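Structure ticket #2291
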Amino acid sequence: MKRLYQSIIEDHFEQCNQMLFLCGPRQVGKTTLIKAYQKEIAVHKYFNWDNVDHRDIILSGVEPVIQTLKLDVPKVEKPLLVFDEIHKYKQWKNYIKGLYDEYKGRINIIVTGSAKLNVFRKGGDSLMGRYFLYRMHPLTVGELLRQNFSNEMIAKPKKITNTEFKRLIEFGGYPEPFIKKNLRFYQRWQNLRREQLIHEDIRNLAQVQELAQLEVLARLLANQTGQLVNNANLAKKIRVSEKTISRWFNVLEDFYYCFRVRPWSKNVSRSLIKEPKVYCWDWALVNNDGARIENFVASHLLKTVHLWTDAGFGEFELYFLRDKDQKEVDFLIAKDGAPWIIIEVKKSDSGRLSKCVQHFQKQLKAPHVFQVAFDLPYLDIDCFKLKEPKIVPASTLLSQLF
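Resolution: structure written out below.
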């Protein structure tokens, strides 16, 4: 399956000399993507830190790595050098910085990892200005419909089949379970992924020892999808300190298990400014139907916000709206610090626009306001050309995002 990120990589190296950093969750398809891309490059070399032989070459220094590319032989295009999971090496930033500074313009470099590459700051000089970071997400409606990332932020609407739409909601967007479409396989895959994430990645890289309690926190968060998160309440349930909960929460975010969406407070009277809401990167973990479709939309919006930001269209952030009078709207996308898109998620169409949507729109005056309904059939309309707040099919709106 071709991923839209391949076109992003191609565009990056056509436009930039900087290294490309690609991060994202375990089994989201980073290695498969890189191997598909490097087939198009005549001279390429792939090094995986988890491979003992590759690790020995890396630890031997920069020259043995460069020698594999045979730079003294004339080439039509730049050779490609890929480092996978090299952030597990304590001195990785100094190593990459030295290599890039010496061979800038002569080779293209990709660095990938299943933890946030800008989190691990051990050992040395900053790489600022030497790389662009791209965040890889699971499959979404937009990516199933198109595999090229265009220069336009908003895509034209396109119909996804009901079968694929339902399969995406049921099995999640990680490629292997989505393609297999087998519930028993998904359960086994998810158990293995959680084991690797917590008992290998987090234990080794984040140095968390209380893994059983951390796993309890992970399960609690999956059951609280779309709800306000209170660290004090979680601390009481797991019997650890609030400080520990805060640290573990950050770890689970850093390793792409979950993400937090914070409340928007600018220009909103009596706004809530404390607790965030939590969502899972794998929405198929969520058992409640209503919470799952809200997580489904949240994941689509986060992916789009990351792509828009990483591609240089501006600075985008994802929020929700809630005030002290309990009025709430599920999502707000801010563009360069200003409200831009308001989205309320409904499992079924009531035929009426939410009063909360109208309430917040009066204050924020966002250019685009949607109430998405999952039971509405696809309509071939450009949602972003609508002049007033409207109820739109979820399949239509999500087809216009990435």
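Closing remark: Residues 217 and 249 are 8 Å apart (CA to CA).
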